[in-house]
Write a structure and sequence with these properties.
Layout (H helix, E strand, L loop, with lengths): L14 E3 L2 E3 L6 E5 L6 E6 L3 H20 L2 H17 L1 H12 L3 H21 L6 E3 L7 E8 L2 E5 L7 H12 L3 E5 L5 H14 L6 E3 L5 H10 L3 E7 L2 H12 L4 E5 L4 E5 L5 H13 L9 E7 L3 H12 L20 H16 L3 E4 L15 E6 L4 H4 L6 E7 L2 H9 L6 E5 L3 H10 L4 E4 L18 E2 L12 E8 L3
Parallel strand pairs: 7-8, 7-10, 8-9, 10-11, 12-13, 12-17, 13-16, 15-16, 17-18
Antiparallel strand pairs: 1-2, 3-4, 5-6, 6-20, 11-19, 14-15
Helix pairs in contact: 1-7, 2-4, 2-6, 3-4, 3-6, 4-5, 7-8, 9-10
The chain binds adenosine-5'-diphosphate.
Adenosine-5'-diphosphate binds next to helix 7 and helix 8.
Pfam family, one: Aldedh
GO molecular function: succinate-semialdehyde dehydrogenase (NAD+) activity
Protein name: NAD-dependent succinate-semialdehyde dehydrogenase
Length: about 475
């Protein structure tokens, strides 16, 4: 299954700036490590502030001509890029499993999901309508046009190394913006492969740039400080998001922030328990629990708590932990040692305060250094650190509640507000709880809710702005008001 990587045209180790592959000025490189095996994959060039400035300048130089293309011309290039991504699904998924660790089948799923944003926004490029507004004065006419905001910066995380890029680059390019992307230094290979495919698709030099480097502070300093960059779209942790927001304030950049979550997954007494178990599996254990929409707190009503725990345990016991290239593996490694330590600390902390490990509970050392056992904890309470921290690992803590009001209060008792989920068969409850949850997204009797057609985003400290859907392109346009007088 694993392709001979050294022969893959998609394996790139330099950054892509102004349509060219460039080395770091310093000559420095850094290694990319396979999280499943600890093996060295390749060394990549380590860019810094100077190269980031060059990328911003290249994006600026390309922007007017890119904006001047017709929407159809931009859409045609985006469609070619989409097709090339799909044509190279296996190679891209191989790179992803190698550098990020998720099971190969899941990696292939992400490639298709990632491509879907480019396909979707290729269509949306042609629907960027303005308005003709009924006038306020007889001698004047009132119109609006939507224009691409200019040069955009994207800073992206490692958990979805392709999709987190395409759902920013798709709408940005569709709207006539050019973009400088800084992927996570844990997973730059997917980002560079996307750049190579954009190049092959004929997307002009400077329209899409990828700058890879270990010094996020320096690269981020240019992307948030350079006056030419008019917008930052960030996906990552809430503390870094807050820092970047403050940096962007100096030049009043537009921002979209997709930050951390602490998703509640509520199972009411009247739920279809089998469906709830499947939903919990999908929402909790995908990508070994390393998504910002993963169920982080499973709240189960008293009457079904034991039955739900038992059914969930039976399913989780069948999981296979290991290298994502192995047949049948459902749980891959965590991204790095720090992630493993954090998950272990949260689990041990809960156990020391009275929680019980119904399944798992420790590192899966036999699979490798960076694996954690798929785990279910029962008797978890809201005074434990695991209630308020994003776990980012394959651990399901089960909390108990008695009433609907108590469940909603527990669910909302967090500064975060990204995804939430609940299972109930009662139509009145479905409306009440949907409206009461302080979240940007609500899965009702469903654990998998992400799609390019739907608006993804959070409220409270989970961020601002929406990605995907008809709303996603609004993040990359300015509405310009034209007042025609003297008529
Ligand atoms: P995660 O926990 O998912 O790695 P981070 O917020 O640390 O989340 O990282 C998300 C992205 O933000 C990564 O590309 C990372 O390199 C980048 N990043 C981290 N710190 C900074 C910073 N100070 N300035 C700019 N980018 C940063």
């Amino acid at each position: 299954m694993q392709a001979p990587l050294s022969k893959s045209a998609l394996l790139k180790s330099q950054s892509y700036i102004g349509g060219e592959w460039v080395e770091a000025k310093s000559g420095k490189t850094f290694p990319i490590i396979n999280p499943a095996t600890g093996e060295h994959i390749v060394d990549v060039a380590d860019m810094g502030a100077d190269e980031t400035t060059l990328a911003v300048e290249a994006a600026d130089k390309a922007q007017k001509a890119w904006q001047a293309l017709t929407a159809k011309e931009r859409a045609t290039l985006l469609r070619r890029w989409n097709q090339l991504i799909l044509d190279n699904q296996d190679d891209l998924a191989t790179l992803m499993t190698l550098e990020q660790g998720k099971p190969f089948a899941e990696a292939k799923g992400e490639v298709a999901y990632g491509a879907s944003f480019i396909d979707w926004f290729a269509d949306e490029a042609r629907r960027l309508y303005g308005d003709v507004i009924p006038t306020f004065a007889k001698d004047r006419r009132v119109l609006t046009v939507k224009q691409g905001i200019g040069v955009v910066a994207a800073i992206t995380p490692w958990n979805f190394p392709i999709a987190m890029i395409t759902r920013k680059a798709g709408p940005a390019l569709a709207a006539g913006c050019t973009i400088v992307i800084k992927p996570s230094d844990e997973t730059p290979l997917c980002a560079l492969a996307l750049a190579e495919l954009a190049h092959q698709a004929g997307i002009p030099a400077g329209v899409l740039n990828v700058v890879v480097g270990q010094n996020a502070k320096d690269i981020g300093g240019v992307l948030t400080g350079h006056p030419t960059v008019r917008k930052l779209s960030f996906t990552g942790s809430t503390p870094v998001g807050k820092l970047l927001l403050s940096q962007c304030a100096q030049t009043v950049k537009r921002t979209s922030m997709e930050l951390g979550g602490n998703a509640p997954f509520i199972v009411f007494d009247d739920a279809d328990l089998d469906a709830a178990v499947e939903g919990a599996i999908n929402s909790k254990y995908r990508n070994a629990g390393q998504t910002c929409v993963c169920a982080n707190r499973i709240l189960v009503q008293d009457g079904v708590y034991d039955a739900f725990a038992e059914k969930l345990a039976a399913r989780v016991a069948t999981f296979k932990t290991g290298n994502g290239f192995e047949q049948g593996v459902t749980i891959g490694p965590l991204i790095n040692q720090a992630a493993v330590n954090k998950v272990e600390e949260l689990v041990q902390g809960a156990i020391s305060q009275g929680a019980k490990a119904l399944v798992g509970g420790s590192k899966a050392a036999e699979a490798g250094a960076q694996f954690f056992e798929p785990t279910i904890l029962t008797d978890v309470t809201d005074d434990m650190a695991i209630f308020s921290n994003e776990i980012f690992g394959p651990v399901a803590p089960l909390f108990r509640f008695k009433t609907e009001d108590e469940a909603v209060a527990m669910a909302n008792n967090t500064p975060f507000g990204l995804a939430s989920y609940f299972y109930s068969q009662n139509i009145g409850r479905i409306w009440r709880v949907s409206e009461a949850l302080e979240y940007g997204m609500v899965g009702i009797n469903e654990g998998l809710i992400s799609s390019e057609v739907a608006p993804f985003g959070g409220v409270k400290e989970s961020g601002s702005g929406r990605e995907g859907s008809k709303y996603g392109i609004d993040e990359y346009v300015e509405v310009k008001y034209l007042c025609m007088g003297g008529l």
